[in-house]
């Protein structure tokens, strides 16, 4: 089982719809959760971070965390063609001497928003 | 805030030469910097983690003698690809973080080895 899993997609939604991206993780001790957006040929850009159970909203983006079920999701409301990108889920594992602040990355979900 | 720069953005070199890539945190002091590599249509692959003033920690399968990392200050880390070969052609990206676990990425360096 991979440590952080995402559906590779592509996820295709019409413009104006809600895009729902999901991520599951295996380490119950994980503490911090991040969503990054990566456009083709560019580096990742942090769009959301979430640390506690529940929802966190920022503009059109909502991150949802459920530690008991070990999943984190990202909702994009009123999707726009400019949201078309790969969305990467990243998780910080429980701290120990060996992990040195690194993140565990999912392989990403490709999102296509159709005009 | 939390701006990370990389230089150069693109480099083309001949096989056998060495290439140095710089990563700078412009408006903060980075506790830790990370180096990633990404091949076309593949996911990020962490190569190494570097802390200022100490040796880098390399991920399994990454040759530390080929990919030299120097973290000379809290705002600068360098990656040197030694004796580069065509299979080293890739997109190299650095990131840095603050006290939290959030990582902020540089714009990346596209390396092409002829």
Please characterize this protein's 3D structure.
The complex is a heterodimer of chains A (115) and B (114). Chain A is mainly β and 115 residues long. Chain A has no helices and eleven strands. In chain A, strands 2, 4, 5, 9, 10 and 11 form a six-stranded mixed beta sheet that branches. A five-stranded antiparallel beta sheet of chain A has the order 1-3-8-7-6, with no helix packed on it. Chain A is globular and about 45 Å long. Chain B is mainly β and 114 residues long. Chain B is built from no helices and eleven strands. In chain B, the strands form two sheets. In chain B, strands 2, 4, 5, 6, 9, 10 and 11 form a seven-stranded mixed beta sheet that branches. A four-stranded antiparallel beta sheet of chain B has the order 1-3-8-7, with no helix packed on it. The radius of gyration of chain B is 13 Å and the shape is globular. The chains are: A mainly beta (115), B mainly beta (114).
Determine the strand fraction of chain A and express it as a percent band: over 45%
Helix amount of chain A: under 10%
Derived from helix and strand composition plus strand pairing, the structural class of chain B reads mainly beta
Q: Label the overall shape of chain B.
A: globular
Topology order of chain A in helix (H) and strand (E) letters: EEEEEEEEEEE
The average pLDDT score of chain A comes to 92
């Amino acid at each position: 089982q991979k440590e952080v899993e995402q559906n590779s997609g592509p996820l295709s939604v019409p413009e104006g719809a809600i895009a729902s991206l999901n991520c599951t993780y295996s380490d119950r001790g994980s503490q911090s959760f991040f969503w990054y957006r990566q456009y083709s040929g560019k580096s990742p850009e942090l769009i959301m971070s979430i640390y506690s159970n529940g929802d966190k909203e920022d503009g059109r983006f909502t991150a949802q965390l459920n530690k008991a079920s070990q999943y984190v999701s990202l909702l994009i409301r009123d999707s726009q063609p400019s949201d078309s990108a790969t969305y990467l889920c990243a998780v910080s594992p429980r701290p120990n001497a060996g992990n040195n602040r690194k993140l565990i990355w999912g392989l990403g979900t490709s999102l296509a928003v159709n005009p | 805030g939390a701006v990370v720069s990389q230089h150069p953005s693109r480099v083309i070199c001949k096989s056998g030469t060495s290439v140095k890539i710089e990563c700078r945190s412009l408006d903060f002091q980075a506790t830790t910097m990370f180096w990633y590599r990404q091949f076309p249509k593949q996911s990020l692959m962490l190569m190494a983690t570097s802390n200022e003033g100490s040796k880098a920690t390399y991920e399994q399968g990454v040759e530390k003698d080929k990919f030299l990392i120097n973290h000379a200050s809290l705002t600068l880390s360098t990656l040197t690809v030694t004796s580069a070969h065509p299979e080293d052609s890739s997109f190299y990206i650095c990131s840095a973080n603050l006290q939290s676990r959030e990582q902020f990425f540089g714009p990346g360096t596209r390396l092409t080895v002829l």
